[in-house]
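To fix ideas, we quote verbatim one protein's residues and fold tokens.
>
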Amino acid sequence: MKQFLLMLAIVAGSFTSVSAQETPTTGDLFGGLTRPLTFNRMIPPYALEVTFSKTVHIIFPSAIRYVDLGSSDLLAAKADGTENVLRVKAALQNFSRESNLSVITEDGSYYTFNVKYADEPVKLNVEMTDFIHDGEAVNRPNNALDIYMQELGSESPLLVNLIMKSIHKNDKREIKHIGSKRFGIQYLLKGIYSHNGLLYFHLQLKNSSNVPFDVDYITIKIVDKKVAKRTAIQEQVILPLRAFNNVTVISGKSNERMIFTLPKFTIPDGKQLLVELNEKEGGRHQSFVVENADLVRAQVISLPVCKAYR
């Protein structure tokens, strides 16, 4: 009797195995408790056509940080000398399978495309700037998905941009004793702000001369207050993480303001923060010093900007 029951179990198991192989899974069933992804969770992709003999260029509103290709049928790379232009083309002629392309930009936006082959693509040059949505908290485009960048820590790139725009729009002068003035050029630090582990420097450059000022580069670094002779100079360069209205030319009889986002830092004893502005092919260089006492008194960004963003 026991042998009969054992043989019956083996036969039943073989039938079950054959049945499972004859009806392969459709992908709808998962092991364990799951809930389906609904369409309101889906990011609608854009339609993009590529070909083998022509290159499609996609212009994004911000620098490209990440690109992923769905298959080896596609080729993509940033255009030489640019940060926000992506060139895409087919790796082989007449590929039949539809593929996809995903891009993340520096402002935290995510773009996705469904890509297929076409002999003659109609749209060879595509601009992804959203002119309908201005990026404000109440008017955000569909691609603004709060993607976080490593250098900004727990701060959203979108919120960083909103803070810089808010500082620039309000145009308050919180600091009145830091700056330099030489050769008709005045370089001022109007304010230092802080929010969620990041610092924001509000700078103004006034050109009261008739000769335009061409900005070569701006250096922000921590240096020793006093350097003895024959002593090595210790410098720590602070690289800005983001910039708003970072102009390169200030016309005669005009002024410009720019905002720089910096990582949080403090100035050790015996050191100071040196901000240098150098003129391209000129000698009207400017520099000023920021003490630790000025840095620790940074104005905390008010919460209304954050509440509007959320």
In short: The chain has four helices and 19 strands.
